Amino acid sequence: MYCPFCRHPDSRVIDSRTSDDGLSIRRRRQCPECTRRFSTLETASLSVIKRSGVTEPFSREKIAAGVKKACQGRPVTDQDLAQLAQRVEEIIRQTGASQVDANEIGLAILEPLRELDEVAYLRFASVYQAFESLEDFEDAIQLLRETPAAES
How far is CA 138 from CA 96, 121, 129, 142, 145, in A? Predict the structure, then answer.
């Protein structure tokens, strides 16, 4: 870790603390050369492998934007979408993988979205799972009736 003041290539960790959300670590460091102190925020990187093979950084904003389309006209707030995106990120990070397929993210969205709004869930699932007929919708609705949503 380079010192941001004198560019010395080393520093000493004085203190480490986990952030409130548990997804990052704040470290207080001191440069042995100039003795000035600075903080760093460390997070584990998470990349998404798209269907085309392109890799890009994970984005909660993209999750919320994609789900927002399914929630149009439903009683779902931007705050609800932000919380859903955070839950999806937590689910993905729990796998321990640094790279995840876009398909796995779609699967991770389904249950939290179902708990948030079943109509939005059906809309999202119909596109994500490529429903082709009324029978596909009927099957999904029957499954919703038979299986209670998981409690958070």
Answer: 36, 14, 14, 6, 11
- Give the per-residue SS3 of the chain: CCCCCCCCCCCEEEEEEECCCCCEEEEEEECCCCCCEEEEEEECCCEEECCCCCEEECCHHHHHHHHHHHCCCCCCCHHHHHHHHHHHHHHHHHCCCCEEEHHHHHHHHHHHHHHHCHHHHHHHHHHHCCCCCHHHHHHHHHHHHHCCCCCC
Q: How far apart are CA 139 and CA 100, in angstroms?
A: 28
| Contact by Cβ (8 Å): 88, 140 | no
The first and second tokens of residue 31, run together, are 């440069």
Q: Could you list the pLDDT tens digit for every one of the 152 residues in the chain?
A: 899 999 999 999 999 998 776 678 999 999 999 999 999 998 878 899 998 999 999 999 999 999 999 999 999 999 999 999 999 998 998 888 889 999 899 989 999 999 999 999 999 988 888 888 899 889 989 988 888 766 54
